[in-house]
Amino acid sequence: MKLFLVSAQDDSAELAEKKINRHFHNHNIRLENRESPLWVIATANDQTPASVVEALDMTGSERENNIDGMVVQIHDYYGYDSMKLWQQMELWSNE
Fold first, then answer.
1. Is 63 helix (H, G, I), strand (E, B) or coil?
2. CB atoms within 10 A of CB 27
3. Cα end-to-end span (Å), the chain
4. Residue 18 — very low, low, confident or very high, per pLDDT cuts 50/70/90?
């Protein structure tokens, strides 16, 4: 599976969470205690940042149900965070 970081602007956070849970039901984790809302999601290997943006309707239009933010593919990662996050990312990377 591929890993992506999804960042949503504060005013889009609630909608982003609903759409992420709908489209990536068992393959997302919200990063807590961040200044802006962030999630790590896992997708099939054929997905790209653009396909995730499309699935979440992050199209930059002025529509009411649009999410403002960005998607970045995670190739490598390192740092100090919760053990739960690292374990989940490792599990998804190996699927």
1. coil
2. 18
3. 6
4. very high
Query: pTM for the full model?
Result: 0.89
- Measuring CA to CA, how many Å separate 75 from each of 1, 2, 5? 11, 8, 10
d(CA 8, CA 10): 6
Instruction: Specify whether the CB–CB gap between 36 and 17 falls below 8 A.
Output: no
Task: State phi, psi for 74 to the nearest 5 degrees.
Answer: -95, 115
Buried b (16+ CB within 10 A) or exposed e, 49-74: beebbebbebeeeeeeeebebebeee
Q: Which secondary structure element, helix H or strand E, spans residue 54, and what is its range?
A: helix 49-56
Helix/strand number for the chain, H first, E second: 3, 4
Residue type for position 74: I
pLDDT of residue 61: 64
